[in-house]
Amino acid sequence: MEDSSFDDELEALEQAAEGMEDSGEDMSDLAKELAQEMKDAENPFDVSSEGELPKNLELLLDVPLVVSIRLGSVSMPIKDLLRLNKGSLVELEKEADDPLEIYVNDRLLAYGEVVMIKDKLGIRITDIVSLKERLENLR
């Protein structure tokens, strides 16, 4: 990660903490703590000389997450939904060249594009949602 990008996200986190404080939200202390930890940590994902991960990170590695890719969406009345059958076409609201949305546990994390990997579909991540946007989605 570039230093300026890291600094921008850190500043956004600190501003979010201040905003939460002003609105009386319970999360202001948590956001401040996270901002301080980010300042203090050179690289929280550094592997020790023995090749071991930090214990606090190791606890999280086996937590299952649901990753889903959203191709697009459309709203339709129930009567149109009931008329769908094999071969029906449903036009989505997205353009063909719009990036796909990548969600982790129903929270937007990134954008990407479809790729072929041998005979399977895959997704190439093209952009990660900023820390500021991710924090706003928590509210």
State the main characteristics.
single chain; 139 residues; alpha+beta; Surface presentation of antigens (SPOA); four-stranded antiparallel beta sheet; FliN-like_C; membrane; chemotaxis; cell membrane; flagellum
**Into how many domains do the coordinates divide?**
2
Terminal-residue CA separation: 26 Å
- Global morphology: elongated
**What is the CATH architecture descriptor of the largest domain?**
Roll
The residue fraction in helices comes out at 25-40%
Summarize the main sheet.
4 strands, antiparallel
Domain Flagellar motor switch protein FliN-like C-terminal: 59-129
Pfam family, one: FliMN_C
Biased composition (Acidic residues): 1-12, 19-28
Region (Disordered): 1-30
Describe the structure.
With 139 residues, this protein is α+β, with helices and mostly antiparallel strands. The chain has 2 domains: 1-61, no CATH class; 64-139, SpoA-like (Surface presentation of antigens (SPOA)), CATH 2.30.330. It has 5 helices and 4 strands. Strands 1-2-3-4 form a 4-stranded antiparallel beta sheet, with no helix packed on it. Helix 1 (3-22) runs parallel beside helix 5 (131-138). This is Flagellar motor switch protein FliN. One of its GO terms (biological process) is bacterial-type flagellum-dependent cell motility.
